Amino acid sequence: MLNRSSSGTRWRVRPDGPDKVTGQLKYLTDMSAPDMLYGRVLRAAYPHAAIRSVRTERALALPGVEAVLTWKDVPGLNRFGIARADQPVFCEDRVRYTGDAVAAVAAATPEVAEYALQLIEVDYEPLQVLTEPDEALAEGAPQLHQEGNLLHRSEYRRGDADEAFGMCAHIVEATYRTPRQMHTYMETEGGLFVPGEDGRLTVYSPTQHGLMDRLQLARILAVPPESIRVVSSPIGGSFGGKDELNVQPYGALLARVTGKPVKIHQSRMESVRAGLKRHPMTIRMKTGADASGRILAHQVRVLADTGPYATLGAEVLNFATEHAVGSYAFGAVDAVSISVFTNNGMSGEFRGFGGNQALFALEGQMDRLAEALGMDPWEFRRINLLPPDGTGPFGQPISVTGGALKVWNALKESRLWQEREHLTESGNRPPWIQTGVGAAFVMHGAGLGYGIPDPSGGRLLLAQDGKVEVAFGFEECGQGLLATLEQMLVEMYGLDAFDLRIVIGDTDAVPDSGSSTASRVTSMMWQALKRMQKPFTERLLAAAAEAASVSAECLRIGNGGIYDIYTQKQVMTYQELAAAGKDPIRAETSFAYPVSPTTRIGAHYLYSYAAVCVRIEVNRLTGRIRLLDQFHAVAAGPVMNPQGYLGQIEGGSGMALGFTLSEDAVMEEGIYKTGNLDTYLIPTAADLTGPVEVLPIEDLPEGDEHGPRGIGEIGSVGLAPAIAAAVRQATGIWLEKLPANPALLQDASFLGRKGETV
Fold first, then answer.
1. How far apart are CA 225 and CA 246, in angstroms?
2. How far apart are alpha carbons 320 and 337 in whole angstroms?
3. d(C-alpha 253, C-alpha 350), whole Å
4. Is the distance from CB of 264 to CB of 206 less than 8 angstroms?
5. What is the pLDDT of residue 15?
6. What's the pLDDT at 752?
């Protein structure tokens, strides 16, 4: 069991930990350069409008202004987007949301740059604002893109659902609504953009995929990708929100035009206005079971608001569809999901990637059906779990781990679940404080899924100074990548942390490892190190044997250098070995994330499993919910970094608490009503004080070659449905819309009761 007091030999200080907790760490947005300019972006004045003209003369004439750019100044592709390049760098003739960029300026001071924005004259013709997906799909609605307002449609059917519903003894139907959640990272989007005398451009800007940023910027600037260097770590939080380009096109263009370093750093309000959010979804489900509790039919309708441009909206929808079908053996399935363009804020990639919305709905259906049947909700889940025969939600082959039943059993035996029957005993609580326990089951796919390029790789090199240089194209987003990588090298190779130099987040220095997303990084680092272990070790020992005139079979690598396996004495240090060698000693690997042998785009092969149990209390006078206690059983293979493992589950849970109880970036007529953290309420330390028990289930079947599965997202998925189940037990009320509305849970009947103090 992992908790905050756990200890053991595998707990180490994070390499970046001391600098972070003392505030010494310099993030990329903390950087500056001599004679640098300050960049600012002019965003749209309307959520939907035609642009009739843009006049920049007054801004250009302002002393201190060195550049004012519009779409006419983009030398290459005036578009960006990871999967579909449909978002304008600068809008030419129409704006589709208030975060759209119309112009950008570079000036000597932030104040001059801000004033210059006010001098840019834009003539708009306001157009009808589409704020609801249903409205955008209606006949006669203005079309936001040439191909229409439908971004993507995902369907999955198995069997005859209509016929199966006719055989059901119990059917439940509900409509679930989830919010537009903000990533709320500490470090808002920004960076420093430095042109070199050699014509190259160096981009210091936080991102989750430096090589993808480089590729997109090269298209915009119309230059070879190799002429751009992207330095992308460390990052002050991302959670998916910095996976897509944000300010990088503007900083890069301004630096190219002025020939000077340009710094851009968005305020929190600018980040709210232009940044990505979690997709708001409306999910309608109809699910039926026979009298014995077997689910015979499941119908799903998902409607997602993707905002004005695609980014990864289609991929999020595919993931949501997969997980709305999820981990249960439905007799017949009828799932149809659509993602729609609107004039609201940008929705995109976010930790959980559509699974959070889907599992809130799916687990709600499980609780409703169990109650209709008069069954224990956890036992109801067990009898309907997918059989352990190696098939996934879409019937695709998957890697079999047995994790589903293991986390189910772990939760059943947990202290919290055992306590749920005794909650009717009020103790010293006032009667308006009602307590409940709820649980949820999570099956979460990792990697990008079938049909989506998902490369990975790494490199080991004995450098001239004797350090073992470890290079990966991943980013340190705060998730603890450096610590996890260090611990894997120490345990797998027998090296010491002092022997290592970790190189990440620099496109000039790293191989293509793919993106730091989709719970894939730990798995891919482990796979790469396994693949390189034998060749790198053999090359080190062969070189040491030649230098020392001994047999390689008598040597081993270890802490600080090469050792004699018989005497255990050090033969030479790594520095001596590097100096003795004629050629660099290195190993490199390139491979792809494992996928299922299927034709279903986005279907996953590797899954992690979790069971979440919570205890909450509801104040029926205020309607407020308080999270008191949590238990998480997680089956994701071996634990590489206990601190990081616990941190990911706790951190994901904290983010999920906001999703469940307080966070919603409210919009009216395409305008954010929530502009800063004074009105957008994220959980604080006061909300996260209860115990958090994390039980890692590490064992994998014999012969499993995939090693640890990622857990960066799974901790954020199950809390909302578990809290909803606990609220039902406490109050008898079903939560169908998040964040939970306190007005729904208030009960004035507790006021004025005789002998009670309110």
1. 18
2. 8
3. 28
4. no
5. 86
6. 60
Tell the burial category of 718 from Cβ atoms under 10 Å away from its Cβ (0-12, 13-18, 19+): buried
CA dihedral 253, 254, 255, 259 (to 10 degrees): 110
Confidence (pLDDT) at 427: 64
In the numeric block, the tokens 């441009």 are attached to 309
Residues 754, 750: Cα–Cα separation, whole Å: 10
Closest CA to 692 of 615, 750, 755: 615
Q: Report the pLDDT value the prediction gives residue 353, as an integer from 0 to 100.
A: 95
Question: Tokens for 304?
Answer: 């997602």
User: CA 252 to CA 89: how far, in whole Å?
Assistant: 11
Indicate the angle between helix axes 481-493 and 521-548, nearest 10 degrees.
40
Which amino acid type is present at position 567? T
For helices 210-221 and 248-258, the axis angle rounded to 10 degrees is 50
Sequence-ordered alpha helix ranges (H) in 173-312: 210-221, 248-258, 268-274
CA distances from 67 to 38, 118, 210 (A): 10, 15, 26
Residue 163: how many other CB atoms lie within 10 Å:
12
Say whether the peptide bond before residue 696 is cis (omega within 30 degrees of 0).
no
Tokens read off for 136: 């955008």
Residue 327's closest CA among 407, 443, 161? 443
Q: Do residues 278 and 307 touch, judged by C-beta distance below 8 A?
A: no
Q: Write the DSSP assignment of 357-379 as a string of letters.
A: HHHHHHHHHHHHHHHHHT--HHH
Tokens 């160096």 correspond to 202
| CA–CA distance, 36 with 191 (Å, rounded to integer) | 12
How far does the chain reach from its first CA to its final CA, in angstroms? 40
**Paired sense of beta strands 671-672 and 606-619, if any:** unpaired
Give 78-99 as a DSSP string. SEE-SSS--EESS-SSEE-STT
Question: Beta strand 262-265 with 94-95: parallel, antiparallel or unpaired?
Answer: unpaired
Any idea what the Cα angle at residue 32 is, between residues 30 and 33, rounded to 5°?
165
pTM of the model: 0.95
Look at strands 101-107 and 65-69 and give their pairing: antiparallel
| Token code pair at residue 101 | 């960029």
CA angle 548, 549, 554 (to 5 degrees): 80
Q: Can you tell me the distance from the alpha carbon of 719 to that of 181, in angstroms, rounded to the nearest whole number?
A: 15
Alpha carbon distance 434, 750 (integer Å):
12
Q: What is the mean pLDDT of each run of 10 residues along the chain (758 residues)?
A: 54 81 91 97 98 98 98 98 96 98 98 98 98 96 97 97 97 98 96 95 96 97 97 93 96 98 97 97 98 98 98 96 95 97 97 97 98 97 92 94 96 94 71 95 95 95 96 92 93 94 95 92 96 97 94 95 95 95 92 94 96 97 96 96 93 96 97 93 92 96 93 96 97 97 91 47
Nearest to 172 by CA among 333, 258, 297, 41: 297
| Alpha carbons 344 and 69: distance in angstroms, whole number | 25
